[in-house]
Amino acid sequence: MVLKGKNEPISCLEPYEEDRNQKADLVKYQSAFDEITMDAGKALDSFHKLARIFPDDGLVRFQYHRLKAGERGVKITLGNK
């Protein structure tokens, strides 16, 4: 992720409390995320499915909307605060 006004990307993580259900959800998210670099169309479909399953998950919605808007790759450049 590249923050507004910066040139160098930083790593960004979302903390979670590990339990059996969340671990399965994390595997689904990681699979969709891995698709971003291999097949953006497939990643878009995967994130669309995840967004329907987890409508309150902000990170899933973020990835889905950026892919839907035509963004590609895992590097995210933020333009707004």
Query: Biggest sheet, open or closed, and with what strands and sense?
Result: none
- What do the pLDDT scores average to? 85
Which consecutive residue ranges, at least 5 long each, have pLDDT under 50? none
Distance between the termini: 13 Å
Description:
The protein is globular. The protein has 3 helices and no strands. Helix 1 (20-38) packs antiparallel against helix 2 (40-53) and helix 2 (40-53) runs antiparallel to helix 3. Helices cover 54% and strands 0% of the residues. It is mainly α and 81 residues long. The two termini are 13 Å apart. It has one domain (1-11, 26-81).
Topology of helices and strands:
Elements: H1 20-38, H2 40-53, H3 58-68
Keywords:
81 residues; mainly alpha; 3 helices
Brief summary of the model shown:
This protein has about 80 residues and is mostly helical.
